[in-house]
Design goal:
The protein is an alpha/beta fold. It has twelve helices and 14 strands.
Amino acid sequence: MQLNFMPLKLRNSYRKNIPEIRAYFYHLYPDFVLNHKITDLYNEIPVFTFHSINADDFEKCLKYLYKNNYCTLNVSNFFEIITNKKNTPQRSVLLTFDDGWGSLWTYAYPLLKKYKMHAVCFLIPGAINSDHQKNYNLEDVWAGRIGYEDLISRESSAEPYCTWEEIFEMYQAGVIDFQSHTLYHSQVFTSTKIIDFIHPNFDCANGNHNIPIIMRNGENVWDRNLDLGTPIYHYEPRMSGKKRYLDDENLRLHCTQFVAKQGGSDFFRDKNWRSTLFNLIKKYNADHQNQGYYESQDDLEQGILEDLRLSKKIIEEKLSGNTVTHLCYPYYVGSQLAVDLSIQAGYKCSYWGFMDGKSTNRAGDDPHKIVRLSDEFIFLLPGNGRKRFTDILLKKLKLGKNILTQITKHH
């Protein structure tokens, strides 16, 4: 068995960034991004995406918007504009946060209040473990109660996401809207092809987001904490609409037990460890009938629908009075099936990243095809202190070079 191996960190980065690369070559960016002479948005409503943030970079974004008289919408205003129920205010933007990382509470919330701005956060309710806990944030630093260094480790702690108590306070303050980013931000196996194994340098990402959901003893392993040696098959986001492949649990156990007997993490010191595991699998399949199978179309549709309904239900129950009708697709990957099922679940608006054939958002657009730009594109908006696209491109190329350097080091 041959391994057509692409390091997963490179694969994951490629999948998320290829739409931006394609947008550049096919001129799919909004006009203001590439044309430095444009001084007006011409009724465009740019939507920007943040994930984890630091205070300095985020405040620079808000300062730029503030000094150039940009209005930050909430989701209700945005939806009314898109559906032609309200005129577009001049220089309107929507700021979105994906996942609900702790820095939303630690940095974003105090700074949004400081500049009297708004944002929306797409939560992963299944990943939020804590109810009654409120951590320090920038307001405590400003009041002299703690030092700034006390905030830095929040997202590397046992509670990297905002707690429900923090979310409730932000919601009550009217500064941040909270909507759905699906229940667990899931990825699932979609092929019989093994592309890697869980190993000490596996690209897990924050919250184990790069580890697919597997079944163990008939139950989904939502925390994604998998044993060393677990085979990783080709996988895609759940909302991609592709049928899930349920791998052979006995084969998986055969691999993980073998690795454990060979010293666990020490087994991976051998440069040929992947070949060893593939040979082990080849022999297993020769001696046993593989029990892996694909889910049915009904199971696929029911799985997506249940995910979307539960995510909406939990957020609405935790935030009394909040109505969840906006959905953001994890990894910017959705499907027509997911859109159709989201409408059935009660969602009225869907957010992506870049979309082929659509460069911006305007009144009258399909609310289930909202495109978003990375946060650094804020500085390309018309205004004083505006950057050029080449500045942003060079920054992205530098980031890509750093990723490749890390991959080379570990592989």
